[in-house]
Amino acid sequence: MVINSWTHTEGNEHAWHVLNRTPGGLGETRNAVVEGITRCEKLQSRLSVGYGGSPDELGETTLDAMIMDGATMDVGCVAGLRRIKYAIRVARHVMEHTRHSMLVGDSATEFAKSMGFRDESLSTRNSTDLWQQWIDSKCQPNFWRNVYPDPKITCGPYKPNRTSITPEKENSVGKEHTIGPDNHDTIGMIAIDGDNHIHAGTSTNGLSYKISGRVGDSPIPGAGAYADNEVGAATATGNGDVLMRFLPTLLAVEAMRAGKTPAQAAEIGIRRVLKHYTNFFGAVIAVNRLGEYAVSCYGWEEFSIVVSSPLKSGPNTRIETV
Ligand code: SD4
């Protein structure tokens, strides 16, 4: 099976296609997750995965991604990746070609270039326009010009948001920091083959107008996703600045290890966050090693997942909304 957060349907269909290249999907779960997510990165799916979305406060798009192998517990992660379009493939290279787990920023870019990836701008008309509109709405005299004397900043300096996210203020610190279906949709994907071999992966361009250098939960094992063949896997979406404090996907997998159902496990992940951040908006998807799955979601009116698995009748790939 292949399951992922939000309506990244093309990525799921592609992953399902890759998984079914071999009988039982054997040996294909890594390829399925990496290539399924790559499809989303290429398509700039929902503008929240890949290049051209979510500019940071300096106008740059940067990418976070992770792949985890539930058999070996190997992970490969990139965070704050600049100027390289296919973050999940770079994460795979970190896993397969280094002894490390995570590379960040410009150094991740250099690594990717050494592996043959092309250095290219992640900005598009969309991301530039988004950023310019945001900057225009933030103009404040005599602040930013002294900090970043950048000719791109034509509207005059603005005052960057330096408000801390407290439990009370979470999701209300300003519209640009509110995460919901309209402005943010990281992909988290899990694939399981006929031998119950599991891979989990994530990819995102993070939070719009984030402070340059901000990394979310998505590339962090146990936060954005986690996989263990013995038990199952989980992936999360929501405000990564909060999610990463609770490792909800590790919690969900450990709950299933302790005998909980996927539904109970996903809820345990979400409830831990809610205990401290009652205004939190987010979701956890939990899947056991047999492919039984459930979603726990809080705050959003609705949340969608895409699932592909063999069905006796009807389409193999379907959107489910909770
Ligand atoms: C982040 N977790 O960078 C991501 C946001 C997200 O759906 O999941 N949005 O904080």
Automatic annotation (TrEMBL):
A Pfam cross-reference name: Asparaginase_2
Superkingdom: Eukaryota
Region span, Disordered: 158-180
Residues the record lists as binding substrate: R214, V215, G216, D217, T237, G238, N239, G240
Catalytic reactions on record: N(4)-(beta-N-acetyl-D-glucosaminyl)-L-asparagine + H2O = N-acetyl-beta-D-glucosaminylamine + L-aspartate + H(+)
GO biological process, one term: proteolysis
Record-marked site positions (Cleavage): D185, T186
Gene Ontology CC, one term: lysosome
Annotated active site: T186
Entry-linked CDD domains: Glycosylasparaginase
Family matches, as InterPro entries: Ntn_hydrolases_N, Peptidase_T2
UniProt keyword list: Autocatalytic cleavage, Disulfide bond, Hydrolase, Protease, Signal
Xref: SUPFAM superfamilies: N-terminal nucleophile aminohydrolases (Ntn hydrolases)
GO molecular function, one term: peptidase activity
Biased composition (Basic and acidic residues): 167-180
Subunit structure: Heterotetramer of two alpha and two beta chains arranged as a dimer of alpha/beta heterodimers.
Protein purpose: Cleaves the GlcNAc-Asn bond which joins oligosaccharides to the peptide of asparagine-linked glycoproteins.
Protein family membership: Belongs to the Ntn-hydrolase family.
Name listed for the protein in its UniProt record: N(4)-(beta-N-acetylglucosaminyl)-L-asparaginase
Species the sequence originates in: Drosophila willistoni (Fruit fly)
